[in-house]
Every structure is written in structure tokens, then in C-alpha cells.
Design a protein that fits this description.
Layout (H helix, E strand, L loop, with lengths): L2 H18 L11 E3 L16 E3 L6 E3 L1 H10 L7 E3 L7 E7 L5 E7 L5 E7 L2 E7 L4 E6 L8
Parallel strand pairs: 1-2
Antiparallel strand pairs: 2-3, 4-5, 5-6, 6-9, 7-8
Length: about 150
């Protein structure tokens, strides 16, 4: 598959859209499969694991799913809450506030041209530019928040 398009589609479908709809997690069923996509129990013809482990060499290959999960799991901490963010048809995004107050924005430029937007958080603002098809995660500091 086209790695970049697959990454964008998966970030949209597994992270951004579900989070904006109230989901609190994402699960990928196959953590590790071999080079033949096994063990295969049916259900899909082209299942991949988050990683592929070559049975002969024991080499581990990180698949696109690994990087999709990384956009959230590395930066969105346990106890984080989704916060409001504006979205349009060309720039999919979702934002979170972590318990330590840091903010996280996961964004995907769906357009065929670069997207330049200003991110505003209270009295702070910064500009981001995403090339066509780019997926990026931004993190910036903030004040700790009480659980709620």
C-alpha cells in the first residue's frame, strides 16, 4: 500500500474521527504477525500487524500502524481529555490536554497543497505549516488541570 496515504487514512479513521466522536481509545487487533501475515484466523485478506516479525531472521519491521499509534500513545497521556479544536475538510485534527496541562494536537493535511494555520491556546498562538498529505503531532506546555 501507499505508505503516506495509508498513514493519513488510518490517523483520520482510527485516531481523529473516533476521538472527536467521544472514543477514549483505539485497538488494533494484530500486534505482531509474521512475513506471511500469520497466524491468520480469517476475517481479512490482507491483515498486517503493528509490527512484522520475520520467522527466519527474527527481524522486526515497524509497519504504518506502529506510527499511527505512536502519534497518540507517545504524547497523549493516561487521563488526558479531548478539548475543542476547529476542523475543516482539508485539515483533520483533534486536540487533548494531558493531566500535566500540556496540550497535544494531532493533525492531518488532507489537501493536495500545503496548509498553514494558526493554533491558538488562550493568549498563546503559533503557526504550523503542513505539506500535502502530512500527518504531525504538536505538543506545547500548559498548566496542570484537575481531573474531571
Amino acid at each position: 500500500p501507499d505508505w503516506g496515504k495509508t498513514l493519513g487514512w488510518m490517523v483520520d479513521s482510527l485516531l481523529i474521527a473516533p476521538s472527536r466522536a467521544g472514543s477514549r481509545g483505539t485497538i488494533l487487533w494484530n500486534l505482531a504477525l509474521d512475513e506471511n501475515h500469520g497466524p491468520h484466523l480469517g476475517g481479512c485478506g490482507d491483515c498486517r500487524g503493528v509490527v512484522t516479525i520475520d520467522r527466519k531472521t527474527r527481524k522486526i519491521t515497524r509497519n504504518v500502524e506502529y506510527y499511527v499509534l505512536g502519534h497518540a500513545s507517545r504524547f497523549v497521556r493516561a487521563g488526558a481529555r479531548r478539548i475543542a479544536s476547529n476542523e475543516d475538510s482539508s485539515l483533520a485534527n483533534v486536540a487533548f490536554v494531558n493531566p500535566d496541562g500540556s496540550r497535544v494536537l494531532i493533525a492531518h493535511n488532507r489537501d493536495t497543497t500545503s496548509a498553514s494555520v494558526v493554533v491558538r491556546d488562550g493568549d498563546r498562538a503559533f503557526r504550523i505549516t503542513l505539506p500535502p498529505g502530512e500527518v504531525a503531532t504538536f505538543v506545547w506546555p500548559g498548566s496542570a488541570v484537575s481531573p474531571g
